[in-house]
Amino acid sequence: MRLTTTIFILMILALTSCSSPLNKPYDEETIEEDTKAIKESGKLTEEDGQLMAGWIIKAKLSGEDLEGKTYSQILSEAKDYKKEQQELSVKAKAEEEERKIRLGSALTVALYDKGYTKYDYEDYLTYSLAFQNKTEKDIRAFTGMLSIRDLFDKEIKSINLTIDDPIIAGQTFKGSYTTDYNQFSDEDTRLRNKDLDDLIVEWIPEKIIFTDGSTLE
Question: Which of 19, 67, 70, 155 sits at 20 to 30 Å (Cα–Cα) from 95?
Fold first, then answer.
């Protein structure tokens, strides 16, 4: 008696599973009715619904044929792809952070003064920078970006730098640089009016070339 009851319950569960609109094969002609039924069934979260819809649109744009696949399979494919993208993003961020630490430990850059000047009827923002070569090799040139942010960590201005002034191993080189000042630019006026103590300056290195021909990037 108990075995019969168990079999009956399993049959009911199997029929319920098969009747789920998610288990219906994808059909472009009935897509509107199918998605409505799936939504009304309550078996799909809003996030999963958007994920599945995005995957179907992506398939159409790429010419991929979804015929024969159930909506459940389509959702599974979309979730797998999203997971792969997330894992790739985490890996890429970790690699980028490791690279920044590696290059940052070789060359330290500090903004120790900033200002404003006029020259030949043109306006400029000025930057006094110190570059410390922390390696045992002479640096021939390097490139990177200086990110200048406020105390709330909101970026005010980013400056691309390519410096070809040599820096002896273990020594510090100081230089003054300028960027054009635009009085109608919010980032320029904010930077001009900010005290140095109210700024967060981050050096984001890209590549270092040493005098022996070797590189770090």
Answer: 155
Instruction: Please name which of 192, 199, 209, 92 lies closest in space to residue 144, comparing C-alpha atoms.
Output: 209
Task: Report if pTM > 0.90.
Answer: no
Q: Is residue 11 part of a domain?
A: no
Whether the CB-CB separation of 139 and 171 falls below 8 Å is answered with no
Containing structural domain, residue 27 = 22-101
- Which H or E element spans position 62? helix 46-62
CATH code of the domain in which 162 resides: 2.60.40
For residue 200, tell me if it sits in a domain.
yes
Residue pLDDT, tens place only, 181-212? 999 999 999 999 999 999 999 998 999 999 99
For the chain, the straight-line distance linking the first and the last C-alpha, in angstroms and rounded, comes to 73
> How many other C-beta atoms can be found within 10 angstroms of the C-beta atom of residue 202?
16
Name residue 134's amino acid: K
At residue 2, the pLDDT reads: 52
134 and 205 fall within a common domain: yes
Q: Do 199 and 138 lie in a common domain?
A: yes
* DSSP annotation of 24: S
β-pairing, 155-163 vs 107-119, is unpaired
In b/e form, how buried is each residue of 159-182, taking b as 16+ CB within 10 angstroms? bebebeeebeeeeeeeeeeeeebe
